[in-house]
Amino acid sequence: MKRFPKGMPAAERAILQEQLIDIILVVLKCNPQLHYYQGYHDVAVTLLLVVGERMAIAMLHTLSKYHLRDFMDPTMDSTKHILNYLMPILEQVDTELHDFMIRSEVGTIFALSWLITWYGHVLPEFKHTLRLYDFFLASHPLMPIYLAAAIVLHREKEVKQTECDMAMVHHLLSRIPQDLPYELLIGQSQELFDQYPPSLLAKRAALQSRKSQSISTFKAFQLSTLHQRPDSVLQRLTKAQDSTTSRHASRHSGLEAALPRDRGQLWGKGNRMVKMAVWGLSATLGAAVFAVAQTAMDWGPEVLLQLF
Amino acid sequence: MAKQYDVLFRLLLLGDSGVGKTCLLCRFTDNEFHPSHISTIGVDFKMKTLVIDGIKVRIQIWDTAGQERYQTITKQYYRRAQGIFLVYDITSERSFQHIMKWASDVDEYAPSKVQKILVGNKSDEVDKRQVATEQGVKLAKAYGMDFFETSAFTNHNITETFTRLAEQVLAANKKDLDLLQMSMNDELDLAALEEEEGLCNSAAGDQGKGCWC
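YS: structure for the whole thing
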């Protein structure tokens, strides 16, 4: 697994690998309508490395039912449909670039792994992956597409200078440069999203035929996450941390015996990891709730007023 | 732009997930081998130039995701291929049985003239072998294909396999080669025409690269 940090001892790696499989199996078993796709593990491993097994299951479970839902159909037709949002964004911003890409017949498959792994499969630096995951956790399910558009627009000159050939353009775009200015691109994708929201793009002919579950359930998801305030989440996490520590202290208690493997080694280091995770997660959730509240206010103030 | 090759062919690697398509390709183009499995998502390609009978043949080898659900996506690349590797893993009976399905997909979606070759990879794993060499030979014969057992790990038969398919594609297209070059010139003219008609944007034209699509 290349996604595990370099220099991690083999034993720890093996434990994580086991946990990764468990996480994926638990989520898929709970949701028989969801299907595994190559790349799903990239999402799972990112969550696992930051928040540990228990929380990763919860997060993956929710993401699979909402943001990643379209990718988990038995076929990839819905995924292809989501990719169809990319070209209309480019068309709005840079017609010349858009036409060049259409002429090259490059399609949008170069962005497939970006979309379905939230860039986890392609970014060499784990910290960049984490930054993007924070962004996507706090955003609309289509945001990875807007970021893809921002990346392509950022590389506009390179693209136009390439031979106008499917293979050449695919080759250029599918390789993400090492030194992308992520903060800038995140800002730009948010701007693109505000300027050309999915509803506007969906009016385009090619996008009308199909319904996306991720998009159609997002409003419900936003409303449900409104109730997950950072303070209550923090409380729950602190409790979880406590129980973890006590579990670590009394390793032969019933709780620990119920665990299938010896996770002592992992949790020894885990204390710091859990703290970092709590910090990262609360920051993320805070941002998410803020973003959610803000967009929800834009979209349906009357619903919200009733709620409060 | 001066071309560094005489002719360009597109080859395609097909087969179940985990049979070693990406490893075969990495071994052939970069002489590298990575034992850990990193699944391919979507499609990608690598290039290499071979000299066959004094002709510089540039081959563009497309690597595909093996998982079944990806086929809606990978199938659109079949029609561009002139040669196809059907790859199975000699330690997986299942991957061998699936060759039938891959072959029938090729019949359905690839050009009728496409050249095929059967590849049984991981030949170094003698202890885990589930598919006998004879089975591979027999199946290849039934389909009228050549057959190689390879190992990306030990670099066994890798160059041979890729060169063989390139030779076959070259032979199949030899008669058309002159014709092909003529039609390539036609396409250039066509692009120039389109430019005059303003279909190509001026910036691309100014850069002198144009769109030799």
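YS: worth flagging: Confidence is low (pLDDT under 50) at residues 190-213 of chain B.
IM: good catch. Also The longest helix of chain B spans residues 158-196.
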